[in-house]
Amino acid sequence: MDMQLAPAPLVTDPRRRLILFFFLMTAMFMATLDNQIVSTALPTIVGEFGHLERFGWIGSAYLLSLSAVMPVYGKLGDLFGRKYVMMTAIMIFTVGSTVCGLAVSMDTLIAARVLQGLGGGGIMVSIFAVNADLFEPRERARYQSYSSLVLMASGAIGPVLGGTMSDLFGWRSIFLVNVPIGFLVLIGLAFMLPYRKAHRRPQIDYAGALLLAMTTTSIVLATDSSELFGALISPESIGIVAFGVVCAITWVFVERRAPEPIVPLQLFRNSTFSLLLVISIMGGAIAIGMVNYLALFLQTTTGLSPSAAGLLFILLTGGLVCGSLSADRIISKTGRYKPFAIASLTCSATAFALMSQIHAGTPIAFIGAIMVLHGIGIGLAQQVPIIGVQNAAPTRDVGAATGSVTLSRMGGASIAISIYGAIIASELGVSIPGVADIKQLTPKMMAALPEASRQAVADTYAAAFSPLFMTSCAIALIGLAAAIMLKPVQLPRAGETTKPQPTAAEAAE
Length: 509
Fold this sequence. Notes:
509 residues; two-stranded antiparallel ribbon; mainly alpha
């Protein structure tokens, strides 16, 4: 088989690349912070507009539109060049933020959140795709670790920042603050990011884009059924699932015949791509999907206050930072990412197996050690799926591959959240003397209970979380099996020769 050179970085000047990377990280922080910062301001928003029954849509509308457009933006970047596609996404997000800040009703706010998500999905995918143009494969691994830190920072400070800004300047400020940041990033990219024109005639797969958007929308709505329709299994959710299945099957037939499919189906014939998608789905389930449940677990089984439980998350974040920075730097030197995928999922599976054995009264130090182990597990393979698929996909399909793996992580998180919620709900159907409804207990209410009732509540929650953690352990083991089956690929350096990606026929053999 003939050999080909790995593509040269889009920008060769190191200083200019760093400045561009700063603008990219600013855009990522803005887009990822937005979903976190809203959480603590929601009660204030509902207090002004009313319509408590639509409370969940403020968050769901953003996630819905964000997930639906991720693969589409990736493909558009491949067809038209990433610069203007990303700038368009930032512009849409900025306009959406402005409308959110000026919203006059709950309906207006929800519609503006949809608009924000349409831009936010493009920002997330385009950033990772632009990174693939800026940095050669091994160097990319090191810079992806900084992307992980930005994602963690937005998750850590988002709720605190949202509450503070809402108290000091009103809830509208949490949206309007995006406007100057968005314009700053737009100006920076306009002057600093070169335009690399695609070397093929753009042909947009409108039918594939629409069907994929409807499929992903159905997944998000179905997994959010318990909040939107009152039950995980309801006539509405069953109808949505059936509609999603029809859209997915139709999408496959359309993509087979499309000259420029949104997600080229031949990518799935590459075992590395398919296995990394599985790892990404499982990683989203045990990392993103588990965060809120870990917080609930800590507050209900240990008696810790929300602020004290938050301190334990510092241990989780610390382990994540250490694992991510160490893994990505070693990957950049050795070019090997498979060992870190295996180590990551082994750590997480072990952590959840240990958590399933925790009972009320377990020493906090032991729980903290497990949190560190889980954090290291997440960090070790935080960016492995993106690095891997960008290397496995042909250069012409890097954007589509990046969009697919980013969407799969979000999809894994959405599905896992519903599974975890159903497990907890089914395990808490017990009556405790002195407690009217255990599901309505807040940490402050729990602290005011008599000692016997408080202990009974803690024991009940510990028993309810045991099957949840075993489920998470099983999810991690599925990801581990996929990681073990990965081929031992070595990332090339800039200018090194590398085997071109196999054709569809070769990959199928």
